[in-house]
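Entry 14. Structure prediction run on the chain below.
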Amino acid sequence: MRATHHRLTRHAGRRRALAAGLLAATLALTSACTSSGDDKPSSWQDGSGESAPKAAATITEPKADATGVPASTGITFTTKDAQETTVELKDASGKAVEGTLAAGGKSWLPAGALEYGEKYIATVTATGDDGKPATATSAFTVMAKPDKQVRITSFLGDNQVVGVGMPLIVRFGRAVPEDYRDDVQRRMTVTSTPAQEGIWHWSSPTEVRYRPKKFWKSGTTVSYRVQAGGLPMGGGWYGRSDLTVDIKIGPSLVMQVDNKTKRMTVTKDGKVVKTILVSLGKKSTPSSSGTMVVIEKLRKTVFDTMDELGPEEGYRTKIDYAQRLTWGGEFIHAAPWSEGQQGSVNVSHGCVNVSMADGAWLFANTRIGDPITVKGTERKLQNGNGWTDWNMSWDDYVKGSALPYEEPDAAQSPEATPGDQAPSVDPTP
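Output returned:
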């Protein structure tokens, strides 16, 4: 047996030597017949003789055969040498899921949250300049519906018309940890016509707001969306559902109050339309200097400070044409009892007092979100005491974003029009 094995080994060795000799001869012949370099280089081919696509695609998330995938998942992928890339997502029945490519073209987001517990197949197709498609697929299963879900709400509702200083306000039913806010913010989009530069700002762990760099342009249509259904929000909590709101910006009505002159100047669409005598807060209860917006409007209400200030200093007074400016209780309102001091002396408890006639006119012409700037008083407005988004510089506002701010292309940046620019604030007396 050993001898036989030895012979077989030697024969195999001869065959290898012979094959090597033939290969060397073939290489020599090929070398001798090589052209001067004008021929095109050969390309890889499959068994049919067709060359392979130049482009390539790879799906990085969700991984193939992944289970427990969040219902908010997008399709993340990479491509090489692709002139065109398409993404398709189908459910188990073969029905296509609507969605869009994200900016940068490296991910694709479904139009809505996927169905809990369902299976899906994602296909990414990359086509190079040779016109040949290369595909990558990933089949995955969405997680079961979670027990812990975070409710997401908007202060504004569809079809509301608001003032040019109105911030977009989104609230979460549970605090969003800092490590998750960037993921949440990536799913928050704002579309305005005409386009205006703006950014989201986290005012608290449960509330995020959006404002443009300058006041909204009058007549702007705004649509904002929070695509957070099924989105992980930390601690095993997930977004309950997506949220979409469409609103419109009304005329540009801006109010400016100067403590020195005791007058309010009302500008509408860039033109002064009215000057109103005012009485601001007396020295013991000064009005706040800063930029605020109208938070709510009350045709009739009662100001009651008895519990807060006690029977000696407190009061309970019926009020007409009240417009809230701060959570601390500063309003624009009619004050017929101070009409003799309006325009000359401050006698209020911090509010902007106007006459009954002017209060009625303002109430009829203003909207929620109309801005007002008060300057020259003894007290500076505290950020957070109301919708004080415009009381912050743009640079400070940007710092509240969970994502880095990117300057827009200067060539595409919209020009300011009358009434868009927030007035400067002088908080000094």
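DSSP finds five helices and 28 strands in the chain.
Filed with the rest of this week's runs.
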